[in-house]
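Subject line: Sequence and fold of a protein, written as structure tokens
Area: Proteins and the way their chains fold up in space.
Start of record: The labelled sequence and token lines come straight after this line.
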Amino acid sequence: MRRAALVHDFFVNDRGGERVAIELSRLLPDAAVYTSFFDERRFAGRIDPRRVHTWPLQRVLAPRDRFRVLLPLYPLHFSLLDLRAYELVVSSSVAFSKAVRTGNGALHVSYVYTPMRYAWDLDAYLSGSSLPMPARVAARALRPMLQRWDRSTAARPDVVISISSAVRDRIRRVWKRDAELIHPPVDTGEITLSMDDDGYLLVAARLLAYRRVDLAVRAATALGRELIVAGDGPERARIEALAGPTVRFLGSVPRPDLVELFRRCHAYVVPGEEDFGIAPVEAMAAGKPVIALGAGGALDT
């Protein structure tokens, strides 16, 4: 048997889950890495592509921003992914990778960011979303099947680890099993304490409907407060349409620029419920207060 394998749902967008998966790959430097899509442009500098095994659709479609339209295929792919040759399997699971097949006597540890959002939090996921009506109807039709699949495959890992107390509570509620709690790693070494204050509020997040960035934009517009939104995503056009002249959208920004935004902001804003929330911890490392909804990962941090 080979020693170790690491599984992550997809390496497409550079988000918190991907950063954690990259850190896990560093902790397991000899582990093979299994995923669906792997965008070499974004991740080759941090994970050697020679370690990475992707699904056949990678060669046909290549990594793409609209990878979520393939939702019905991910459960099948990961359910059939045979990793029985490995003694240790670590799955980094947004939704699917916990379902891989492992051998008798192997140890499967699943680091879970949340039980599948498309199955258990679909209403929040769709609320305010710009998804077209056919996609909404399809998502609601698939929900019962996804819930059954998610709950049944949740029994496959030997150990489940949650990223926050809120996620641990969700796991107990929907999967009916206990989870360990280990907060994700946050690299604050490059962020120095700052007394600089340019007066603006800051949000740095993937622009998805459930992140509720629209609430921060509406509030800043109503109050005439300067707000900077760093990040991109499928809801950007809809949220930008809500913004007044005091709100600026920067899109995706390089890491050094984001660190400087943390250092010069007046406060960081978390308008929606985060599973954990890496960016608020980074803002606090810069000495900045965080204004957050009193739910989710903010209660831990």
Remarks:
- The radius of gyration is 19 Å.
- The first helix runs from residue 16 to 27.
- The chain has a mean pLDDT of 92.
- The chain is about 35% helix and 15% strand.
